[in-house]
Amino acid sequence: MATTNDIKNGTVLNLDGQLWQVLWFQHHKPGKGNTVVRTKIKNVLNGKVVDRAFPADTKIEMAQVDRRDMQYLYDDPSGYVFMDTDNYEQLTIPADVIGDDKDYLLEGMIVTVATNEGTPLYIDLPASVELEVTYTEPGLQGDRSTGGNKPATVETGKTVQVPLFITTGEKIKVSTDDGGYLGRVQS
Q: Per residue in 43-76, pLDDT tens?
């Protein structure tokens, strides 16, 4: 058994027979009263996010999570297919587990897949990905690098707000946390 002092971002807890991933935590010491650990946790099966506070030093059960690097191969109606880079074993992850992370997946990309007793829980993407702009409106004469933004569709189908000087065919760096434009990729 662990305590609330062992909670970290990404930790998976077994609470009331369900698995919850810690998205955010904070130790809070009010002016009066006992210290509590505030958390934002996500149910790994249905994606529900809740705020929960635990009294300090409360015993909690940590779930056994296996993390391994896997290569994304392709998607089909049954889900997203990943291959273990060590033993070439393939794993199909349902689309509801992948969720919005699909907007950043490119064939051949290496991601970390977290499983519990063989059941896929979630994937960890790199902090940013390089994606090609497949369509954006052309910029107008006089557009400046410090000007406004315009929508651009990237190769995964996601729409990203980019500066006016970005053109179709360019590679851009996109944050996987918030989907924001981070810059051009220098070739």
A: 887 778 999 999 988 899 999 889 999 999 999 9
